[in-house]
Design a protein that fits this description.
Distance between the termini: 47 Å
Number of helices: 13
Radius of gyration: 24 Å
Strand content: 5-15%
Helix content: 25-40%
Low-confidence stretches: 516-520
């Protein structure tokens, strides 16, 4: 039916608030221009009645005046367009939820270290279901991304470019932090095994993206599910980054060579504007999905390659990598850092309309890049704080709330994306390390209080057998509603707890010294 209507006269919400299910603070709602309308009437209602009305001459409404008049819960907004007294636009209604924010309380620390030991013990265990020949002696999650943590049944789909890097970071950080623990040697062994998997399982050398790890594998073969035989480009940069860490660890030149190969493919695939395509045909490099905000991942890799004197490459190649990193950072600052379009992140999500599936994985990485000392952006701390404010408004569940969130979970905890609106340990972990970086940069108490609470929430959702609940423990039942956990997501939360507990211990020992934790960007 919409094809039969003059679309220029339809009010259509757009921009960062267009599809948001919930807000902590008052949003600014924006919509596309309606040429025939000279003014817009906006009405805001709670469950029972209209509490605020306003008239605006432009295609935006700031709900700051309405916000104090609204109770927590559902909010309805009606926008109508007029020319004089005549309604000339197809009106638009939308609903979202007003939810609580941070209460300002810093709780007592939980036993973060004990939780880490139990979680790593769970992750290092062998498979408890049937092991297939193609698994070839690798750790149990080399060909599987998710498993029922109660029964041990594994799904035969994996995202190695994303999750294998997470295991390597978690296990190496754990072995460094607790070298004398009985689990340390096995953690290091499995980290190297995941690194070997990434070296041995790569795309054919004669493809344009040859030598890169696949981003999806299914039942022992490359590709599958949403991606088909294509790959998510920026995930390869994540593999390149972990190759640099393995080189630092072992001195093995094959790791460094692979990292340089990935970096040079990133340079080759960079768009003229400094961005990268989201999903491409690895044979030709032709994009099948264009937009992703996840530019910080290749920027990190190219920057780290420039900091590695042993990295292969002529002076010209090194200069080209540095130029690509600078161009990518410029696009990032002018793009999602400015306009808020943080989307195009996950291998299991098809292309979505603009603004309809915002997320924050790379927003967190951008916060940490800005605060790492590697960015030349002016007002880096201010920008990082603004990005964190976006995460806290859209994705942090601060307290029990009425909203579309399906689980009643320990709080504060962090939701993944609009299309998968669940609280997850991996995202609480990412945010935890961003809070660490923000506290280190500013010394502001609220970042410290939020971080302690977030770390406690991850621990509170730990299962008795050691796994960290990917889908959130439901406080009504005292157990998760879903036990199909993602061990690679557990690994990110383990890394976060390791970095955070080390930082907190140093801070407690010397409150006037913030300290350093350069590896905190590695999750």
């Amino acid at each position: 039916m919409s094809d039969w209507i003059d679309q220029s006269r339809v009010i259509r919400f757009e921009g960062p608030s267009a599809f948001s299910p919930r807000f902590v603070g008052p949003p600014v709602l924006r919509w596309a221009p309606v040429p025939s309308a000279t003014r817009f009437e906006v009405a805001v209602a709670d469950r029972e009645r209209v509490v605020w009305t306003g008239s605006v001459a432009t295609e935006a409404a700031d709900l700051a005046e309405a916000w104090p008049l609204l109770p927590l819960g559902p909010v309805d907004v009606l926008v109508r367009g007029f020319d004089g007294d005549r309604e000339v636009a197809v009106r638009k209604h939308r609903q979202f939820w007003k939810v609580p924010g941070f209460d300002g309380v810093r709780p007592d620390p939980a036993d973060w270290t004990g939780a880490v030991h139990r979680a790593v013990g769970h992750l290092l265990q062998p498979a408890r279901d049937e092991v297939f020949d193609y698994e070839d002696g690798y750790p149990r999650s080399a060909w599987s991304s998710f498993e029922d943590s109660v029964t041990g049944l594994r799904g035969r789909l994996a995202f190695p470019a994303q999750h294998h890097a997470s295991y390597i970071h978690a296990y190496l950080t754990y072995a460094d932090r607790f070298p004398d623990h009985p689990q340390a040697a096995e953690a290091e062994r499995q980290a190297l095994a995941y690194g070997r998997w990434l070296l041995e399982h790569h795309l054919p050398d004669d493809w344009r993206l040859g030598g890169l790890a696949p981003s999806t594998v299914l039942e022992g073969g490359f590709g599958g599910w949403v991606e088909g035989d294509h790959i998510t480009v920026f995930r390869a940069a994540r593999v390149g980054e972990v190759m640099l860490r393995l080189f630092e660890r072992t001195g093995g030149p094959h790791y460094l060579e692979r990292a340089a190969r990935v970096g040079d493919v990133m340079v080759d695939l960079q768009n003229p504007d400094g961005s990268w395509p989201f999903r491409v045909d690895p044979r030709t490099g032709e994009p099948s999905v264009g937009y992703t905000s996840a530019v910080v991942t290749p920027v990190w890799l190219l920057t780290l390659l420039g900091e590695t004197p042993e990295a292969p490459g002529t002076p010209s190649q090194r200069a080209t990598r540095a130029a690509a990193a600078a161009k990518g950072e410029a696009w990032l600052l002018a793009g999602p850092v400015t306009d808020g379009r943080w989307e195009g992140m996950y291998e299991d999500i098809p292309e979505t309309p603009p603004w309809s599936n915002l997320q924050h994985w790379d927003t967190n990485e951008t916060i940490r890049f800005l605060l790492s000392g590697r960015s030349d952006a002016p007002d880096r701390v201010r920008l990082a704080a603004q990005l964190n404010a976006y995460i806290e408004d859209q994705f942090v569940v601060w307290a029990p709330e009425e909203s579309p969130v399906p689980v009643h979970c320990p709080t504060p905890t962090v939701l993944e994306q609009y299309r998968c609106y669940w609280p997850m340990e991996v995202h609480t972990g990412h945010w935890l390390v961003s809070l660490l970086a923000l506290h280190r940069a500013t010394g502001e108490e609220h970042y410290l209080a939020k971080a302690v609470a977030a770390a406690n929430a991850v621990v509170a959702a730990q299962n008795p057998h050691g796994s960290l609940s990917t889908w959130g423990l439901d406080t009504r039942f005292g157990t998760p509603l879903v036990t199909m956990d993602w061990p690679g997501c557990n690994a990110v939360a383990v890394s976060a707890l390791l970095h955070w507990s080390a930082y907190h211990e140093a801070l407690t020992a010397s409150p006037d010294r913030v300290g350093t934790d350069a590896a905190a960007t590695w999750l």
